[in-house]
Amino acid sequence: MDKFQAMQAFIRVVESGTFTKAAQVLDLPKTAVSRLIASLEVELGTKLLNRTTRKVSTTADGAAYYERAQQLMSDLAELEGTMSRAKTNPRGRLRVDLPVPLGLSVILPALPAFVERYPDIELEFGISDRPVDLIAENVDCVVRAGEIFDQSLVARQIGAVRQILCATPAYLDKHGRPSHPADLEHGHVVIRTIASRTNRPFPIVVTKERERVEVQNRRGLTANDIMACLTMGLAGLGVVHALTFSAATHVQSGALETVLSDWVSDPVPVFVAYQPNRHLSAKTRVFIDWLAELFASNESTAKR
Known about the structure:
Keywords: DNA-binding, Transcription, Transcription regulation
GO molecular function: DNA-binding transcription factor activity; sequence-specific DNA binding
Order of helices and strands: HHHEEHEHEEEEHEEEEHEHEEEH
Strand order of the largest sheet: 4-3-5-15-6
Family: Belongs to the LysR transcriptional regulatory family.
Organism: Paraburkholderia phenazinium
Pfam families: HTH_1 (PF00126), LysR_substrate (PF03466)
Structural class: alpha/beta
Oligomer: single chain
Number of domains: 3
Number of strands: 15
């Protein structure tokens, strides 16, 4: 027995007063409606309806069951309406953790467009590059550049970031302008970012046509934050491997000068990660879709 269908049939019989009218409303044979009611009475172990040749009326148990069943159906209809509205007008608190450079330079500056589109979503951001336990910290999704090591999460690539080697003109005037990555091995200071997972500097690998070279340098400065590395580069302390979107304004202003501009680094993929769930909440889904649109529209973060 389909209990939901039986409950609907019972409500329609009570409201219409006859099995015939209820069957017409439900677009079912009269015999099917009778079987549904009979099965429901067997399931509940009580008689719900008094049947005569002229009319149908509820028993005391039937009247009580009708009242509760009607309320249940009303609540269900309201719930379905709420969920349907949520798809077109998502609402509620959304907790997101963003990496420092992407959060401050790319995502947060573009946020007014998202807020205008979805005014009923309450946004709460964490800005960090640390591993985040989504369940324990009640976080809906995280944005990260590079590989997602937590295999329990769903990771969707939304873009990619690129890096360039650059330094101040004063530094290059003093130490020389390299023409090949090997030139950085001697007489230069290379500023690198430390990977939090390995506590070792990220490798710097550049390619020109078919030649691929990893930059080797023993004289270096390191920091566990890529923006701190950029700051050291701006201070004239060495050649920094900086995010293109972070260094762009400084290159345009002349504060920094690109180094080995005909050598390119591999793009670093950017992912948004979230808990596996067949029914991803509407607020999370629209935010992820918006992020994908944002990254695709920005030349320095688009996938290629």
